[in-house]
Design a protein that fits this description.
Layout (H helix, E strand, L loop, with lengths): L7 H33 L4 H51 L1
Helix pairs in contact: 1-2
């Protein structure tokens, strides 16, 4: 049977890596939004309305995903704190 070994320091490293990726994603979403608005000026008539709508929907979906990632990072931070607290408690019990 396989074992899963977790440490608070490993979780913290993963959280920091995810935070770094989140910042990159946020920057790329911002760049996508900026470039999309530049391209918006190239469209006319019904095509412009469809393009604008599609762009807005895509940007909103990306921002919702970014928010979910932020919430996950926050929950992960809480888990890490609780893990450290329980680890300390277990060591205290084991040493008494």
């Amino acid at each position: 049977m396989s074992q899963i070994i977790v440490s608070a320091s490993e979780l913290s490293r993963k959280k920091e890596a995810l935070s770094s990726l989140k910042k990159t994603l946020a920057s790329q979403i911002s760049q996508f939004e900026s470039e999309g608005k530049k391209l918006d000026s190239m469209w006319d008539g019904p095509a412009k309305a469809k393009y604008s709508l599609a762009l807005t929907l895509d940007i909103n979906k990306l921002k919702m995903f970014l928010k979910i990632v932020e919430e996950f990072i926050s929950v992960l931070a809480t888990i890490i704190s609780l893990y450290k607290l329980m680890e300390k408690k277990n060591l205290s019990v084991a040493s008494s």
